[in-house]
Fold SulP family inorganic anion transporter.
Amino acid sequence: MQKPLAGLGRRNLVRELTAGVTLLAIAIPLNIGYAQIAGLPATAGLYALIVPTVVYALTVSSRQLVASPDAAAAALVASSIGGLAAAGSADYATLALAQAILCGAMFLLLAVFKLGFLANFLSKPILVGFVGGLALDILVSQIAKMLGVKIDSGGEFVDKVVGLVTGLGTANLLSIAISVAAVAVLLGGRRLLPVVPWALVVLVVATIVVVLADLDDAGVDVLGEVPAGPPALTWPIIDWSMWLALIPSAIALTLVTTAEGLLVSRSYGEKRGYRTNPNRDLFAFGLGNLAAGASGSFAVGSSTSRTAAMDQAGSRTQLPSLVLAVGTLLLLLFGTALLADIPSPAIGAIVGVAILPLLGIRDFARLWRQDRFEFVVGAACFLVTLFIGAIPGILVAFVLALINLAKRAANPAIDVLAAGGEPTDSLLDEAPRGALTAPGVIVVRLAAPLFFANGSVFDDAVKRAVRSAGERAVRHVVIDMEAVTDVDVTGAESFEALLAWLDGEGIELSFSRVRPDARARLTELGLLGDRRVFDTNRAALAALAGTAAPPATRKED
């Protein structure tokens, strides 16, 4: 088992501490913004950086993955709890705690029963569409904040857009000026000096300007008073009906975090040459979310952007996360007065710029070029998430993932092999060329398990191969089973129908390169019988090519 802070030594101590200061500068303004997106006080975002961060950093297998609430999680919290309680109310905050605890329990179950593979159903198009829909919904709220326009941030997307458009006449020119300057600094600074924490620079400078010029009296919204003190241990007390109502959103949060978190963890582990343990990472997410629910925060996930920032800063341990926790605690103890005058337009600009990449514009363009069906999957998930809701979006995503899986499974590669083993004829083409592997012999390769989705397809494909070659020219059909890992009952029934047809045509069926587990399955289903099984295709051809001539007459199909 990997020790906490693995990889830390004297040589990299200073670098890791410096990276921790950078992470502190990045995380504080973003978490304040994410808490506002979630409909929670700023302290909820800051509390997430203390106990949950420490618990996660000391238990995770990844040396670099940063755990924190992110924009997508915050939007999902707002959209799922907004219909159950009024944003900003005590009941709303209590539901957010309960939701985090449910997420923690689900992560622990995934870890204990090793069910992390379920997140594999969230394919790239689904994640792009789901996160993109949430990001656009967030962006409308942040644009309103940047313009100084009041809208219902917990409402539906269409209502937000209508509120923004109709409220443009009430926009505050000073808020717009702060926002434009903030966006210019964030985008320009990132290109010129990417190592500088420009989000912190924007917050500090904007706050100083607001204080010196009394811009809050001129209509510029500010964050307001932030309660001082460390997070207190708590536990949500709600009815069982509310616990049940939170389960769908907790499932969605858990699955999205699992898919993204495990992918990022594995990729950085491979990139930097250390091992990661997916189940231990899920366990760490579980403990982190339980800690979040018990310390006044909300659901914690993985932060891809902050993990990338730490990697660029040279960090290879979890020490920066511990520095972040200590720094945030000191801020809550002694520096909350510094937060009260932070202008909301600056926070909106920081969050807006941070979520722009989440819109997935480049990803959608790539999907359009590479696979139109997967583009449709992503677009459908995007639209449902945006216009109907996050939970329906994730449900539609799973349905589309299953449709996509079935579509691909129902059309596996089925080829006639040449004597040398390479494909000569795809049997899924409209007009196969009628190739023989050798005189009187066709070797057919199925590159998938034989099951209910492709059994009839395989049956039809083999018949087409025999007919296109000329039924009188074919004496033997050999099924190359190297890629067939399993056969289900429905696939076996289709296979039996094929066997009956081949027997009626006087064609002998043999198998080659059968896996041990597949051979046992064929025997169990009664498909093997006394049919010949060859170790290689070459052995099959040597034994079958040039054998007895076909019968003089055959049945017509």
Summary: The two ends are 63 Å apart (CA to CA). The chain has two domains: 13-135+194-348, 414-544. The chain has a mean pLDDT of 86. The chain has 21 helices and eight strands.
